[in-house]
Write a structure and sequence with these properties.
Elements (H helix, E strand, L loop, with lengths): L9 E6 L4 H6 L14 H17 L3 E4 H11 L1 H14 L1 E3 L2 H14 L5 H10 L1 E8 L4 E8 L13 E3 L4 E3 L10 H13 L4 E3 L11 E4 L2 E6 L5 H9 L7 E6 L22 E5 L2 E4 L1 H6 L1 E6 L7 E4 H7 L3 E4 L2 H5 L6 E4 L2 E5 L1 H10 L5 H14 L8 H6 L3 E5 L16 E5 L1
Helix pairs in contact: 3-4, 4-6
C-alpha cells in the first residue's frame, strides 16, 4: 500500500458494505455519531453503485467483510486467527460455573460456525448474560451488544497510507475505537502489508485528517486528531514528505460556541484536492485554519500561516464552497486521477437536510439564503463548475449513506495510487 498524492491514479481501495450494524444506529443516530436517520436498505443499494462505479474506473475493490470470509474459507491458518480474535472478544456474564462452561462450549464449537457469523460477531461484539430460571432449572440468555460498529463503512478514518506504508490510527470517539482492530487485522493478514506502524494509545489520529499532496502533506487536527497524533504520523517510517502542513480544523465565525463539531470534524469535511494544482474547499474556513509548517524531521514549525495562504502559495487554484455546499458533503469527493472525481449529488443531499430540518435555525437560514442566491445549477460539483475547471465528474446519489456524516472520500480506504 503506497500513496504519494491524492491526484495519482487510484488503483486499489477497501470498502465495507454496511450491514445490520447500521440498523442499530437508526434507533439513536446521534449517539452513534450519525447526522440523521435514513433508509438503510436504500443506503446499501447506494453502496453497491459506489462499488460498481469504482470498478468501472479500473479500481480494484476489496470488500472488508467478504475479504475476511473468503480468506477464512480457504486458509485454515487465517481461520484460526479469526477464531481466536472472536474468542477473545465474546464475553459471558453470570455465575462463574455457568459462564466457564459456556465459554468452554463456545471454544469447542467455534470451528463449526461459518465465517460470516464470525465476522458479524466481530462487528456486533455481543455479550451473553446467563440467568438461571430456578423453576425450570434452565439458563435464560440476555444478549447485549457493546457498541455495534455502525461507522465501519467510513473506511477512510482507521488509517493513513503514505509513500512507504501505512499508519494505523487511534479513533477519538469510543464508539469507533474497535474499528482499527479489525482493519489492522485485515491489512496485515489479507492485504499483506508489512510496513505497518501504530500511533500510541494516548494519541488520536484519523485518516480523514490526512491529505498526501506530492512533496508535501496536509494534516488536520482538532475534534478527531490531536497534536501527538500528528507528530507520530509525521515521524512515521510510512511517511516521506519534504514538508508537512498541520492545520487546526476551523469553525465558522457566525456559529455559536457550542456548534456541532461534526460539521468540520475532519480536514476532508471542508477541503479536498481534485487534481495537481486544484483544491476544493471553503475559503472562509481555510482562511480561519491556522497552519503550522514543518520540514521533514523538524520539531518546531518553520512558520505559521493559514491553509488558504499555504495552498495558494503552492500554486493551487481553489474552487470556493459556500456553507451550503460544505454542509452537503461537496468537498467529500474521491479523486480517481488528476481532475477526475466521484462525488456526491449535492442538491439532493441539501434538499433532504432542509426537509428534515437537520440544521439549527440560524444555520438553516444561512444555507437557504446561499442556496437561493447561488442556485442549484451552480452548486459544486455541477456540470457547469466542473467543466470550467476541467474536472471529469461522476456524480452519485448518496443521500442515504451521507446520513452517517460522510461522502465518497470518507467511505473509501485508498490503498494504492500510482
Amino acid at each position: 500500500m503506497r500513496i504519494r498524492s491524492e491526484w495519482d491514479t487510484l488503483r486499489e481501495v477497501m470498502i465495507h458494505r454496511p450491514g445490520i450494524e447500521i440498523d442499530y444506529a437508526m434507533l439513536a443516530p446521534k449517539p452513534f455519531l450519525f447526522e440523521r436517520p435514513f433508509n438503510t436498505e436504500r443506503a446499501r443499494q447506494e453502496h453497491i453503485v459506489l462499488e460498481e462505479r469504482l470498478k468501472e474506473n479500473g479500481v480494484r475493490v476489496r470488500l472488508l467483510r467478504e475479504s475476511i470470509i473468503k480468506r477464512a474459507d480457504r486458509d485454515s491458518n487465517f481461520r484460526k486467527l479469526l477464531e481466536e480474535k472472536v474468542l477473545n472478544q465474546v464475553k459471558f456474564f453470570g455465575e462463574l460455573t455457568h459462564t466457564s462452561k459456556a465459554m468452554e462450549e463456545f471454544r469447542r464449537n467455534i470451528s463449526l460456525l461459518d465465517a460470516s457469523t464470525l465476522v458479524n460477531t466481530l462487528i456486533l461484539e455481543p455479550s451473553i448474560d446467563l440467568r438461571m430460571e430456578v423453576e425450570n432449572k434452565l439458563e435464560y440468555p440476555r444478549i447485549y451488544s457493546n457498541v455495534p460498529l455502525a461507522n465501519l463503512y467510513f473506511m477512510r478514518d482507521q488509517q493513513a497510507v503514505g509513500p512507504n506504508g501505512i499508519v494505523i490510527g487511534n479513533m477519538k470517539r469510543s464508539q469507533r475505537i474497535r474499528e482499527t482492530e479489525i482493519t489492522e487485522f485485515v491489512m496485515r493478514n489479507i492485504v499483506g502489508e508489512t510496513n505497518i506502524t501504530k500511533v500510541s494509545p494516548t494519541s488520536n489520529l484519523e485518516g480523514g485528517d490526512f491529505m498526501p499532496s506530492g512533496s508535501f502533506a496536509i494534516i488536520g487536527k482538532g475534534a478527531r486528531t490531536n497534536d501527538t497524533g500528528t507528530r507520530e504520523l509525521m515521524s512515521s517510517a510510512a511517511m516521506d514528505f519534504d514538508e508537512y502542513c498541520v492545520v487546526s480544523n476551523p469553525r465558522y465565525q457566525f456559529l455559536e460556541e457550542n456548534f456541532d463539531p461534526m460539521i468540520n470534524m475532519h480536514l476532508d469535511t471542508y477541503f479536498n484536492i481534485a487534481g495537481n494544482g486544484l483544491a476544493v474547499g471553503s475559503v472562509e474556513l481555510m482562511k480561519n485554519a491556522k497552519a503550522e509548517i514543518y520540514s521533514d524531521g523538524s520539531e518546531r514549525p518553520l512558520t505559521v500561516t493559514n491553509l488558504y495562504s499555504y495552498i495558494t502559495e503552492k500554486g493551487f487554484s481553489i474552487i470556493d464552497l459556500s456553507v451550503a455546499e460544505q454542509l452537503s458533503y461537496a468537498s467529500n469527493f474521491l479523486t480517481i486521477s488528476d481532475r477526475k472525481i466521484i462525488s456526491v449529488n449535492t442538491p439532493r443531499v441539501l434538499r433532504l437536510l432542509l426537509n428534515q430540518h437537520v440544521f439549527p435555525k440560524k444555520l438553516e437560514d444561512v444555507v437557504i439564503k446561499q442556496m437561493n442566491t447561488k442556485g442549484e445549477g451552480r452548486l459544486f460539483p455541477s456540470e457547469s463548475v466542473c467543466s470550467e475547471f476541467g474536472i471529469d465528474n461522476t456524480e452519485l446519489d448518496l443521500r442515504e449513506l451521507t446520513g452517517g456524516y460522510g461522502g465518497a472520500h470518507c467511505m473509501t480506504a485508498a490503498l494504492v495510487r500510482s
